[in-house]
Write a structure and sequence with these properties.
The chain contains 32 helices and ten strands. With 759 residues, the chain is an alpha/beta fold. Strands 1-6-2-5 form a four-stranded parallel sheet, with helices on both faces. A three-stranded antiparallel sheet has the order 4-3-7, with helices on one face.
Length: 759
């Protein structure tokens, strides 16, 4: 279609029977003009682009909420869960239309297609103006007017001029959106469906003029055109699906963090201040005072002279750009010019700029009023918290749980369910962690509890997973499992998570799934990592409430044997040395801790390690680790260790071999001073060049000993030694000195001078 501006003439009147009012979502200028227009003409109906399935509870929007808030709509279609937000700020045109419409006694309704009917759409922020951001016409117009992007273009045309009247606004906005839509010609099938639905919703109200139709500017002319001809009946998808819709608290931080095609108005705190100050107010002093306060909290000093310089510069930039008043970009550039003295990196990080962006973002967080209908999940969470005396306090509180008592274990399971669902306000800060193997001597947890507005918001938004806490956490975990790769280690982690949450039914399902994965997984590292998780599930069954699960013990045996089989065929590895040693420790720990309770075969274990030790194709690291395990299990004599060590004295092997040996046999080696003497003799016998080549790996090998253990080794080798004062020198300096010494000796020897050669 070729754009013809004459088509817009019927849409430019402010006194017609039907007024198509185009908006940019979250535009203060649009909100101000729209609110004034509704109060002046007092329409019979105000029809707003918004989720029509919220109309049944529309009166909740008139409760005394603290903004910002959002309508949250969600759907579960054959296990695919998705949700979307319709955010409202005080200065949102839709919000002002809702409130002004009520003031004049108009019928106020949402007219957009329910989001559950268009879940093929990727955008989850429904007031994002994505069509305008994608437009090639907008890009070319921005270049012609010398501004960067759609946000700056909109500010220039609509926001900066606080005296824009309704007629000028309609002329500019209809023209801009009309040319954008029909110049680009990119109209999605989803938009056409929405417009067909909205037209059908509007039609019954046309007889009760005047009517104001409030939609994103992209849709205004298209709706007018549709309503000039008979409409075809719109058929909704009648498939029964699980869905819901509710109000939820929102925040300026969340609104500002949206990016790309889902972005709203940037710097919501700035536009909030614009709204509060009115169309002719001077917002610069207020914002600069807030920036100065923020800088003080960041321990940055700014003087009155600095603030005057910023204000003067921002005013000059506004004049240069033709702005009737100082605007957002002018302020940012004024601070950059006046206060930032250093060169800025590409990411524009600087304390002063961070402060101004924080102020422009704003800190407001919404809160729902009493009487707002909440999803069942929110009430279920509340009941569980009351039952276990875990209601969130206004001030930070800490609770300690003894995981060996049934009462505290139930509290722990509840808290882990909340944490899995990402419900705000609950954080485990200390205690046993079976996943990372931290604090295993403890059978307790410490949780931090503190209420915040995000608690209610997160509970509402997680209603997408179910109506009860257990059902929702269960569904969330299953979704995480389904989305993960076929990885035995990940499956074992999820099994551990299920046990923490008390989901024994899910534990059985995961055990079967894990067993299937392990039998088909040929990755030694994944299988052995899974074994580590299973070991702690088995050992800490009382704490986890999984006592009596015989299948778990059988699976530990099966996975242990499979890990050994994969180990023998591992071959050479690259860049996974640390992981290899961790896996060898898991094998050793599993055998030591379960040899008396599970049928683990010592002979089979040691035979495989012996074959690896004698296989010259295996890495020195793995052979050293195998010897360390054999020695720890008393399956290798001191003579065997000494002879094997003597066979690995090349600079490319000795360090890696000792790393493996010390990592797995650290405690045993300290009990055999004769072996220490052998090791000392071998290392002392190396020439300078060989020693220097082996030095980095040797240094790594000895890091497996604690400082106290290193002191004990030194005493065994040299006994007590008295020194006048400690001699401190870095390992790097030692290495450099030895290189220099070797070069000097080589030079002396070359010229036949005394002192040359090794003394």
């Amino acid at each position: 279609m070729t754009p013809d501006l004459a088509d817009l003439a019927p849409l430019l009147k402010t006194d017609g029977n039907v007024i198509y009012f185009p908006v940019r979502h979250h535009s203060p200028a649009a909100a101000r003009i729209l609110g004034d227009l509704i109060r002046r003409i007092q329409p019979k109906a105000v029809l707003i682009e918004g989720p029509s399935d919220f109309n049944e509870q529309f009166d909740e929007l008139y409760l005394p909420h603290k903004l910002p808030l959002a309508i949250y709509t969600y759907v579960n279609r054959e296990g695919l869960r998705r949700g979307a937000f319709y955010p409202f700020c005080l200065y949102s045109p839709e919000w002002q239309a809702i409130q002004a419409g009520r003031e004049v006694g108009a019928t106020v309704r949402f007219i957009d297609l329910p989001w559950a009917q268009m879940t093929s759409e990727a955008t989850t922020h429904r007031y994002a103006d994505g069509e305008l951001r994608r437009s090639g016409y907008i890009e070319s117009l921005s270049q012609r007017l010398g501004v960067e992007g759609f946000d700056a273009l909109w500010d220039l045309l609509f926001e900066v001029d606080g005296n824009l009247d309704p007629a000028d606004y309609l002329q500019r906005c209809h023209t801009l959106c009309y040319l954008m839509r029909y110049t680009d010609g990119r109209i999605s099938g989803e938009d056409l469906r929405r417009e067909a639905f909205m037209a059908e919703q509007i039609q019954p109200f046309l007889a009760s003029a005047p009517v104001i139709i409030v939609t994103g500017g992209f849709h205004s002319h298209a709706l007018y055109e549709r309503l000039q001809r008979p409409l075809e009946p719109f058929e909704l998808d009648q498939t029964q699906i699980e869905r819901g819709i509710a109000l939820t608290p929102y925040s300026y931080e969340r609104l500002d963090s949206l990016t790309g095609y889902e972005a709203g108005m940037p710097g919501p705190g700035f536009y909030h201040q614009v709204w509060e100050e009115g169309q002719s107010g001077n917002i610069v002093p207020t914002i600069l005072a807030a920036v100065a306060q923020d800088l003080r909290t960041r321990k940055q000093t700014v003087s009155s002279a600095d603030l005057i310089a910023v204000s003067t510069t921002a005013k000059a930039l506004a004049d240069l750009r033709g702005h009737p008043r100082v605007w957002r970009r002018d302020l940012v550039d004024g601070i950059t010019t006046s206060l930032v003295k250093e060169a800025l990196s590409d990411d524009l990080k600087h304390p002063f700029l961070d402060a101004v962006h924080a102020v422009l973002r704003g800190t407001l967080k919404g809160r729902l009023a009493e009487g707002t209908r909440l999803p069942p999940l929110v009430e279920d969470i509340h009941q569980w918290l009351v039952k276990h005396h875990l209601e969130l306090p206004q001030r930070e509180t800490f609770i300690d749980l003894d995981l060996l008592t049934e009462k505290d274990r139930e509290c722990s399971q509840l808290l882990h369910q909340l944490q899995t669902l990402k419900i705000n306000g609950f954080t485990c800060i200390a205690g046993v962690d079976l996943l990372t193997r931290d604090n295993l001597e403890q059978f307790s947890e410490t949780w931090r509890l503190c209420w915040s507005p995000e608690f209610e918001a997160s509970a509402i938004e997680q209603s997408i997973y179910g109506t009860t806490l257990k059902e929702s956490a269960h569904a969330q975990l299953l979704e995480m499992i389904d989305q993960s790769e076929r990885d035995a280690a990940a499956a074992a982690q999820y099994l551990l998570a299920a046990c923490w949450m008390g989901f024994t039914d899910l534990s059985d399902i995961l055990l079967d799934r894990l067993q299937t994965l392990l039998r088909s997984d040929a990755d030694f590292f994944a299988v052995t990592t899974a074994l580590g998780h299973l070991l702690y599930l088995y050992r800490y069954d009382e704490m986890l409430g999984t006592v009596g699960q015989d299948d778990l013990g059988s699976l530990v045996v099966e996975v242990f044997n499979r890990s050994l089989w994969l180990l023998e065929s591992l071959g050479r590895i690259e860049d996974r040395n640390t992981k290899l040693l961790d896996c060898m420790k898991i094998l050793l720990e599993t055998f030591e801790r379960c040899r008396n309770s599970l049928p683990l075969n010592l002979l089979s274990f040691t035979d495989i390690l012996g074959r690896i030790l004698n296989d010259s194709s295996q890495t020195a690291l793995l052979r050293g680790a195998s010897l360390g395990v054999l020695w720890t299990l008393a399956a290798a004599s001191e003579e065997t260790v000494a002879s094997t060590l003597s066979a690995h004295t090349s600079p490319s092997e000795i360090g890696d071999f000792l790393t493996g040996l010390f990592a797995l046999g650290r405690e045993v080696i300290q009990r055999y001073p004769q072996l220490l003497e052998t090791l000392n003799r071998l290392i002392s016998g190396l020439d300078e060049q060989t020693f220097l080549e082996a030095l980095p790996a040797l240094r790594l090998a000895f890091t497996y000993f604690t400082p106290r253990e290193k002191h004990h080794l030194a005493l065994n080798l040299f006994g007590e030694a008295e020194t006048l004062e400690p001699f401190v020198v870095s390992p790097e300096a030692v290495a450099q000195t030895m290189v220099l010494e070797g070069q000097i000796f080589a030079l002396l020897e070359r010229f036949g001078l005394r002192g040359g050669g090794k003394q």
